[in-house]
User: What shape does this take?
Amino acid sequence: MTAIPRLRRGLSLGLVCLGFTLPASAVADAARAPSARWVEDPYQPHETVGPNVRAGSAVGWVIHDDRTYTALGGAISVGPRLGRFTLEAGYIFAELSEPGPSARVHGYLHRLSANARADLVRLGSRSLGPNSMLAIYGEAGVARQLHRWLRPEDGLAARVIPVDGGRSVAVFGFGLNLDHRLEQPRGFPARVGWQLGWQLTASDRVEPGSTVVCRGAECVAGPTMPRAPVRDTSLLVTSTIAFSW
Assistant: This one.
């Protein structure tokens, strides 16, 4: 009589073990394949393809109507990365002040640009370390530069200021782009980088410009500025943090 209970227990244990080894159970426990964007080898080649956003600071100097101003502000750019090439739409806002140790602000600069950038030299992870890349780049583009000039405050001496307006400029630049790749990105971003760039602009030879003489809010027509001996130029150094996904 004791053999039957033992047989039943043996059959029950066998069915339980069989349930854990069925093909359906094995498929259910299989590990999910990693995302295609995951990096298996931190030293594998860098694939820089996808949307890119940069934001940071801009500082330098601007020559307008043969006068030099110190520029300090911020920059933001967006556009796709296509391997070694990047297309960007950018915006720079800068405060234009008296050169040297002066707090006098003369006006503001707004620049809208469209640039194309190319990585001329690349150093990959085997030179810099896991998942890191350094690129030396060059860029060129066109921009529309707008100026807004401030009137002197009440109580200050009258001064001659340019009339608000805008000019089209050519943009040339170069710089360094340090890029770090995330091995297992879970959405945004897949890459984080830092870019240090020098951006030079130049316009066509400046035609005689109109000015106004202002004392506080009251302004009258001023002398016409002569043709400037040099082109309108600027040199801005940008330091930006970049995110790609």
